[in-house]
Amino acid sequence: MGSVVRCDRYPYVTGSSVLGIKYKDGILLASDTAGCYGSTVRYKSVERLKRIGDNTILGASGEISDFQAITNLLDELITEDWMWDDGNKLGPFEIHNYLNRVMYNRRNKFDPLWNSLVLGGIKKGKKYLGMVSMIGVHFQDNHVATGFGNHLARPIFRDEWKEDMTLEEGVKLLEKCLLVLFYRDRSAINKFQMANVTEGGITITEPFALKVNWELEAFRNPTKGAEGSW
Amino acid sequence: MSSIGTGYDLSVTTFSPDGRVFQIEYANKAIDNSGTIVGIKCKDGVVLGVEKLIPSKMLLEGSNRRIHAVHKHAGMAVAGLAADGRQIVGRARSEASQYLSFYGEDIPIKELCDRVAHYVHLCTLYWWLRPFGSAAILGGYDRDGPQLYMIEPSGVAYRYFGAAVGKGRQAAKTAIEKLKLSEMTCREGIIAVAKIIYEVHDEAKDKAFELELSWVCDESNKQHQRVPADLLEEAKVAAKAAKDALDEDEGMDAD
Hints:
The structure holds two protein chains of two kinds. Chain A is α+β, with helices and mostly antiparallel strands. Chain A has six helices and 13 strands. In chain A, the strands form two sheets. In chain A, strands 1, 4, 5, 6, 7, 8, 9 and 10 form an eight-stranded antiparallel β-sheet that branches. In chain A, strand 8 (115-123) and strand 9 form a beta hairpin. The termini of chain A are far apart. By secondary structure, chain B is α+β, with helices and mostly antiparallel strands. Chain B has a five-stranded antiparallel β-sheet, covered by helices on one side. A five-stranded antiparallel β-sheet of chain B has the order 3-4-5-6-7. In chain B, helix 4 (169-178) runs antiparallel to helix 5 and helix 5 (186-200) crosses helix 6. At the A-B interface, helix 1 of A face strand 3, helix 2 and strand 10 of B.
C-alpha cells in the first residue's frame, strides 16, 4: 500500500449553481454556462447540463473536469445497460444511487470529485429529482439547488413552487431565480441553459439570455442597512 | 474431410506431418454441429440472423440470446459452444469500451475485428489454453459504412459480403450467393435472411428453432439492435410461406 497522501484537492475551473424543479409533466433543470477560474470568468460556454440515456438529465456545479469524468463514467454505464437489451433501462433513481456510491467512495479516499450534482428524470410516469454532494450527502425533493442557488433560489422555490405546475409556470419560476442569481452571484453570467425531461424525451435549450434591469431600487443604494460596508 | 490425427491431435501446440493443427480443426467441428448463423451486408447496413435450436420446451422464449450488441454501432452473432461465444463477445465489448475511452471515438469495425481475432488466435498458441469452440459473425457501421466480418477459431478473420457458419452453412452460402446484395436494403435483407434460415433448417433432425434477427443500418440510426417486432413477424411469415412453397414443390410432407 502506498503512503497515504492527503489530497484534499482544490477545484480549478468551477461552475456555479444548478437549479431543479419538478413540474406537471417532468423535471426542469437550469444553469448558466460559465466556467470560472477562481475569480475570472474564463469560459463562457460550458455546458453544465447533460443528458444521460433517454430519461435522465444531470446538472453539475463545481469542478468542471470532475463533471466531465462523471459524464464519461455514466456514458459507459448507459452503454452497458443498453447492450443488455432486456427491455429494462436504468432510471433516474438507479443512476442517482450509482452516483451517490461513486461520490461517497471517493470522499472516503480523501480524493473527492468536487461537484454538487443535480439529477432529474422520469421513468414509467414516476418523476424523480435528487441531489448528490461531493461528500456523498444525497436527498430527493420537489425543488433543489446547488451552491449559491441554495441561498438565493430555494427561498423563492419554497414560496412559489406548487404541485403540478405547467411548463410555462416552471420556466418562469426558473427564469426568475436565474435572474436573481445573475444579479447577486459574482460567478454567474447572463447566458443560461434549461433542460427538460418528460416521458416524451429530453430537450436541452440552446443558450439564452435574460433581460436585466440594473435600475432596480435595490441596486440604487446597495449598502443601505448594512453597517460597516463600503 | 475427416482424417485420424492419431498422436498429433492431442495438443494445440503440435503440428501434424502435413502441417495441420488438428485441435483447431476439431474446434471447427464444434461449430459445424451448431445452429446456422447468417450475416449479410446490404447497401445500407448489415443483417445478422441465427437459427437458434431449442433443445427443450422448458426454455423461455427469447432467452439464451445468440446475437449480442458489442457496442452501440456493432453486434455479434455467435455459433458453436455458447459459453465460448460469450467470452468472445465479452472481450469484444471490453475492446470497444477501452478504444472509446482511449481515443474518444467509436471503435472502427475493422479494428474491433482485428482485436477479437488476435484474442481468439492467442488461445491457439499455448498448450494450457484451448481454442474457442465458436465462430463469430461481426456486423457494424462506422465512418466507412456498414461492414461484415467473420472470426473463426483459428484466429483467421475476413471481411465478407455474406457469411454463414453452422449446420446449414453450405445451403446458406449457396442461397446468399444468389442474392443481389449491393441493391438490397436492410428491410429486404431481413426477409432474405429469414427465408434462408427457414430454408436450411432441417425439420427431420432438429425439432424446434427460434429465429433471432438483428440489424445495424441507416434505418436503425446506425445502431445495432434487434429487428423491431413487427418487421420480425413479417419476415417470419414470409419465410414460412416460402418454406411451405418449397416443400410443396419438392413433394415433401410438411411434417
